[in-house]
Design brief:
7 helices, single chain, 209 residues, mainly alpha
Length: 209
């Protein structure tokens, strides 16, 4: 058991296999079987899992790395910039993409069980005209669009500037310093938006299903 757990890849693969067994068990036990609603649940599982990794790393950067970096001795900082930060940013940007892709999948699949769901959410309830009882779509749409803005921020601002700041893309020292600040501020914007976005997602699922 110890050898299995010391290997990261093996541990993750085994965890996915166990999760797959549970997903199959849910399909067998539920009244809906393996139909559209089952796959909606699978996509939501993947959406939430990817989102935990994405937002978890976002919070790691803001709660830990950005705050602690100024106190790290200069001779130790290259280890962060050359090894830890690039690895964290790899999982950060790809989990952001996976979160959005699986989220879009949930929207499409839920459209099959709740007519015009995706259109209503993406238009803040305006797709068929705003009427009483559709305020929930405004709340969910807010969360979806915040997540999309955060995703675009990751790939369009944070990652390009982090590549310059970390030396992955060679630039002059003044450009590197500027890129580091832009990346930090963009990360703080995502940090700012993360709690409202999560509030929308979590509250909607609990109160409106």
């Amino acid at each position: 058991m110890g050898k299995l757990l010391t290997n990261f890849r093996t541990t993750v693969l085994l965890s996915l296999v166990l999760a797959g067994v549970m997903i199959y068990a849910f399909g067998q036990a539920s009244d809906v079987g393996f139909g559209s609603q089952f796959w909606q649940a699978v996509f939501r599982w993947a959406h939430v899992g990817a989102g935990i990794l994405w937002i978890g790393l976002l919070w790691y950067f803001n709660f830990v790395q950005i705050r602690v970096m100024p106190a790290i001795p200069a001779d130790l900082k290259p280890a962060i910039g050359k090894h830890i930060a690039p690895e964290a940013l790899f999982w950060f940007r790809w989990s952001a993409l996976a979160t959005v892709v699986f989220g879009v999948g949930v929207l499409i699949l839920k459209q099959q069980t709740e007519a015009n769901y995706a259109h209503e959410v993406m238009s803040f309830g305006l797709a068929g005209g705003l009427v009483e009882g559709q305020q929930k779509y405004i709340l969910m749409g807010t969360g979806v669009w915040l997540a999309i803005i955060m995703f675009l921020n990751v790939w369009g601002v944070i990652w390009p500037n982090q590549k310059r700041a970390l030396g992955i893309v060679a630039v002059e020292d003044d450009a590197k310093a500027k890129a580091a600040r832009v990346a930090m501020l963009a990360s703080r914007i995502n940090m700012l938006l993360s709690l409202p976005m999560l509030t929308s997602m979590a509250m909607y699922q609990t109160l409106f299903g």
